[in-house]
């Protein structure tokens, strides 16, 4: 493409099929506790 | 749903439901502002006319590219592939514990949400027997889940060192029998870190969070010892020794808090990085409105500008070969968690619970001491499933503001406790928190793009 460059293509939909196993780290979105925020988490299966 | 924004000459279009992120040139960005999910098969003349500053041919070409993306499911994608009802984790296993091993602290930080350590419940250390009962509780409640997280929290957990060590030993002794893997984290203010504890933490804790606010004057304004002196000079060398000896494969974070007294917090971030901590975060304070250092809507323009400034600093540092990672700018665009995980950011009350020194169970550390949320006790292994179900049922589709928010699959619905504290309703998102979150995400995605452009 000439006008658009895609940084990340659509990936969320594919994850709906295999997702939800729950083995990943628990997250906390609060400012008070730096445990883990969702957007930077790894999927346990992607390792 | 899409979200468009510009930053430093780059034009972004995020496709919310598919997770696609596009960087556009000026023409296609202009076109993207004039289209919606009902795109016609050819570029409407109206768009060409409206963008008469660009050659008509180019406008049509840009339109066609956007249409191609739409057809590929990367623009204006629907969310009909998500069946939310299927993903409500009723009766889900508990897989993470926040163990409040010490409701006591040897610092007197002015902004402490735990009322300087005791959560308003009196100073106490958790006896090892209660911690062991908590481990029994999580093993019994974790079902088939293999990975279990335990976070030693407080107060100041180093004040309950025996309990920490005995809990780790106890949990490890059960791993094989129950086919579990425990991962430990400890959050400390550093005062009691001696050589032995340092070595133990580096050996046994998968993650360690080191509390440090930044520049000495900033740190010492809030993080005071019992006698009222600053803590900076005592803790920094101890933190440094810990990090220097730590296996680089293992996580750690230096974590600070900013308040309305240091809205120039990018300087604190840089200070912490220069002090030798390359994984860090400095986060907005959780404070009562009107306390004098809380953050308000009036501070927002300054905070947003500061996040922008921090972004530029980080790019420069990377170019100079001295990069550091800022926790709240980290986003994994490719291999992040599945969409099911993204429906709810936190597991409080159903897969994550906090346990007090007396063995009482609460949905998370932020709810400790709020009677109406007391969920059970590890002493009799009781656990209120009604509260668990209520927490498990909340997600970005049950929160009205989240439904409409472009950031929902990155933010995952924010913090129930913040919503409750600020708005008395766990489903009513705390607006200032949201605005900061959206700003951080824009910065984070910009950093990813800049990184990629530099690499190409
Ligand atoms: S930023 Fe706010 S509204 Fe948006 S998803 Fe997060 S909590 Fe919900
Ligand atoms: S309610 Fe808030 S503080 Fe508690 S675990 Fe969830 S995100 Fe974290």
Automatic annotation (TrEMBL), chain A:
It comes from the Bacteria. InterPro entries: Six-Cys_pep_SCIFF. This is Six-cysteine peptide SCIFF. It comes from Agathobaculum faecis.
């Amino acid at each position: 493409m000439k006008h658009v460059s895609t940084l990340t293509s659509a990936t969320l939909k594919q994850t709906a099929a295999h997702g939800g196993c729950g083995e990943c780290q628990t997250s906390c979105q609060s400012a008070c506790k730096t445990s883990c925020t969702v957007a930077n988490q790894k999927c346990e299966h992607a390792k | 749903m899409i979200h468009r924004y510009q930053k430093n000459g780059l034009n972004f279009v995020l496709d919310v439901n598919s997770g696609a992120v596009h960087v556009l040139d000026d023409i296609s960005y202009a076109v993207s502002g004039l289209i919606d999910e009902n795109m016609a098969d050819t570029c409407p003349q109206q768009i060409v006319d409206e963008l008469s500053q660009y050659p008509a041919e180019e406008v049509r070409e840009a339109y066609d590219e956007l249409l191609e993306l739409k057809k590929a499911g990367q623009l204006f994608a629907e969310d009909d592939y998500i069946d939310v009802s299927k993903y409500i984790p009723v009766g889900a296993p508990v897989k993470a514990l926040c163990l409040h091993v010490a409701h006591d602290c040897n610092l007197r930080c002015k902004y402490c949400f735990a009322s300087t350590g005791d959560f308003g419940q009196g100073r106490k250390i958790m006896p090892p027997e209660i911690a062991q009962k908590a481990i029994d509780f999580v093993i019994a409640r974790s079902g088939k889940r293999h990975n279990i997280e335990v976070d030693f929290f407080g107060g100041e957990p180093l004040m309950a060192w025996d309990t920490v060590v005995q809990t780790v030993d106890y949990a490890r002794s059960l791993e094989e029998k129950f086919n579990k893997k425990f991962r430990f984290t400890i959050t400390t203010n550093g005062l009691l870190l001696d050589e032995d504890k340092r070595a133990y933490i580096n050996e046994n804790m998968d993650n360690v969070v080191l509390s440090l606010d930044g520049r000495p004057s900033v740190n010492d304004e809030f993080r005071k010892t019992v006698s009222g002196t600053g803590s900076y000079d005592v803790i920094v060398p101890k933190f440094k020794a810990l990090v220097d000896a730590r296996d680089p494969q293992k996580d750690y974070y230096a974590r600070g808090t900013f308040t309305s007294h240091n809205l120039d917090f990018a300087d604190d971030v840089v200070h912490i990085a220069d002090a030798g901590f390359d994984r860090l975060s400095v986060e907005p304070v959780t404070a009562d409105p009107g306390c004098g250092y809380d953050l308000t809507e009036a501070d927002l323009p300054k905070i947003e500008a500061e996040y922008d400034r921090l972004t530029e600093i980080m790019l420069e540092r990377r170019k100079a070969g001295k990069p550091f990672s800022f926790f709240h700018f980290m986003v994994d665009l490719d291999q992040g968690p599945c969409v099911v995980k993204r429906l709810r950011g936190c597991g409080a009350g159903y897969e994550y619970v906090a346990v007090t020194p007396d063995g009482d169970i609460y949905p998370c550390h932020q709810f400790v001491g709020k009677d109406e949320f007391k969920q059970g006790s590890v002493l009799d292994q009781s656990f209120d499933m009604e509260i668990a179900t209520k927490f498990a049922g909340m997600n970005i589709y049950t929160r009205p503001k989240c439904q409409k928010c472009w950031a929902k699959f990155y933010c995952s619905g924010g913090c129930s406790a913040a919503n409750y504290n600020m708005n008395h309703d766990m489903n009513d998102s705390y607006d200032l928190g949201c605005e900061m979150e959206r700003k951080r995400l824009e910065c984070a995605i910009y950093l990813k793009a800049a990184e990629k452009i530099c690499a190409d």
